[in-house]
Amino acid sequence: MKYLIPFVLSFILLATSCKSGGDYSYELGDKFYYEGDLERAVQYYSKAARQTLDVYELVEVYYSLAIVYDDMDDIDKAKEYYQMSIVTDSLYYNAWLGKGNLHKAQKEYDYAEKCYRKVEKILPDDTEVKLYLSDLYLDIQEPDLAIDYLEEVLALDSINAIAYADYAIALAMKGQLQEADEKLSKAEDADYYDMEGLTNTVNDYKAHSRKTTIITH
After folding, report:
1. What CATH number should be reported for the domain whose range is 21-111?
2. What class, spelled out in words, does domain 125-217 have in CATH?
3. What is the pLDDT of residue 112?
4. What's the whole-model pTM score?
5. Which of 77, 19, 78 is nearest to 52 (CA)?
6. What pLDDT is recorded for position 21?
7. Domain coordinates of the chain in residue numbers?
């Protein structure tokens, strides 16, 4: 056993010495990010970007910088680094998704839709991006387009609570109130996390629908 200890120590020292400067800086960036020190996270992620030669690692570094700048509300920098990540690897769907979410938050719906559709091409059976697309269409008052994607989600995951919740909203938008109640019940059965908020949203659309019907008649 006593002969094994020096060997193990030598192996650990060798493994540590083989770690690149970029890897070490990236780990420090992660450390400071999770501690909430965003300025120092940027400092070390940026250092990792300068030290990293591997393309696949560089994609992750740019993506991490985009997330930090997004958290810092530096929207232009966040967009810049999401784009740098995408340019480095056009199939890196996390960057497309992050960039899409950023555009959607800025109400830049055309750009957001393009990003989400890119993810959909990369991951055609991914329910998450389909839900993002349906949510986008609800934001721009296009319930029929939202329903198309919600049907796809439920075909892949028949107990998806978020899909049923969004479906209820889409149907309420369309004035299909009984059908909306049915989806509301399905969302509750699937343990949707905010039934009170969902019910209030659906009821708002119901009230609007009834008011519109009264005015029309």
Report:
1. 1.25.40.10
2. mainly alpha
3. 98
4. 0.83
5. 19
6. 64
7. 21-111, 125-217
